[in-house]
Known about the structure:
There is one protein chain. By secondary structure, this protein is mainly α. The chain is built from two helices and no strands. Helix 1 (20-40) packs across helix 2 (66-81). The longest helix has 21 residues, at 20-40. The radius of gyration is 13 Å and the shape is globular.
Amino acid sequence: xxxxxxxxxxxxxxxxxxxxxxxxxxxxxxxxxxxxxxxxxxxxxxxxxxxxxxxxxxxxxxxxxxxxxxxxxxxxxxxxxx
Length: 82
C-alpha cells in the first residue's frame, strides 16, 4: 500500500522564520513514521482527499529545538487524519 501526502502550506504562528526548514523536515519524518506504522495496521482504507486539516493545539517547550516542534505538529496533523 502506498501513501501519497501533499502539504501545500503549513501555517505556523510564533516560530522563528529561520527554523522553518528544520520544522518542516521534522514534520515530514514524523508523519512518514506515523503513517507507515498505521498503514501496516490497515488504518487507511481507500482514498481520501481533504481540502484543509486543522491540527488544533499542541504544546512545545519554550526554547526547545525546532525538531521537537515539528514532531508535535506532525502528531497533531496525524490525530486530525484519524
